[in-house]
């Protein structure tokens, strides 16, 4: 019990930990709104308010987050390694996403002209989707390298169980990352090119929860 409480405290002390918790609220309320929209309009209205409030609070909490991507790019100037190039492209997309998300948030709360919201949402979602494609590629490449290394260890020695367990643990984390990025990519596509599948409340709700809970797992375990 004490160990769980300690992990919860550490989880909620992280910016990403809080973000995943509030993201869970956001997409649970979206699914709730869809489920009771016709039968219980009063509850549906409250669920919608909860969803909007959660989404806006996440945007406020992510203020300055674009600097993470900028810092990652700054550390790899003129890189030639394939992984470094992919990392630059991924972080550039994420930087665009978080940077323009500031203006989207300000336009939605009325500080900037509300007509900017649609444009800022498109640019932010485009950067997000662009970055996630390269993050997914990186994770798959690293998973493949991990599998190769695991096979080499198995062929040479049976005594390096700790190393094999570490590789497998990293693989689980990367698979969680892929799940989160694919789910967020679906949400980004829904904003860039609205369509009946991606924009359906159930698709968005499930995608949001997959992203939130995969991120929750990664932050909790670390």
From TrEMBL:
- The main location is membrane
Q: How does it sit in the membrane?
A: Multi-pass membrane protein
Q: What InterPro entries does UniProt report for this protein, alphabetically?
A: PEX11 (IPR008733)
What's in the GO CC field?
Answer: peroxisomal membrane
Q: Name one GO biological process term.
A: regulation of peroxisome size
Q: Cellular location of this protein?
A: Peroxisome membrane
PANTHER family linked: PEROXISOMAL BIOGENESIS FACTOR 11, PEROXISOMAL MEMBRANE PROTEIN 11B
Report what the protein is called.
Answer: Peroxisomal membrane protein 11B
Give the source species. Answer: Ilex paraguariensis
């Amino acid at each position: 019990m004490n160990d769980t409480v300690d992990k919860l405290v550490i989880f909620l002390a992280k910016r990403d930990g809080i973000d995943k918790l509030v993201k869970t609220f956001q997409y649970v309320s979206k699914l709730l709104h869809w489920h009771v929209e016709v039968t219980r309009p009063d509850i549906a209205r409250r669920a919608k308010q909860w969803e909007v409030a959660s989404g806006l609070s996440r945007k406020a909490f992510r203020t300055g987050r674009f600097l993470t991507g900028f810092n990652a790019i700054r550390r790899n100037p003129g890189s030639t390694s394939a992984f470094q190039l992919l990392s630059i492209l991924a972080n550039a997309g994420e930087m665009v996403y978080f940077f323009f998300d500031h203006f989207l948030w300000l336009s939605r709360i009325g500080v900037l002209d509300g007509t900017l919201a649609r444009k800022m949402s498109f640019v932010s979602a485009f950067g997000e989707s662009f970055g996630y494609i390269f993050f997914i590629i990186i994770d798959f490449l690293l998973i493949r390298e991990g599998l190769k290394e695991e096979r080499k260890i198995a062929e040479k020695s049976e005594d390096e169980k700790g190393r094999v367990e570490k590789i497998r643990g990293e693989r689980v984390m990367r698979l969680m990352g892929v799940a989160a990025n694919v789910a967020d990519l679906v949400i980004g596509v829904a904003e860039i090119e609205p369509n009946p599948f991606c924009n359906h409340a159930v698709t968005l709700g499930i995608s949001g929860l997959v992203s939130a809970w995969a991120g929750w797992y990664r932050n909790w375990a670390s």
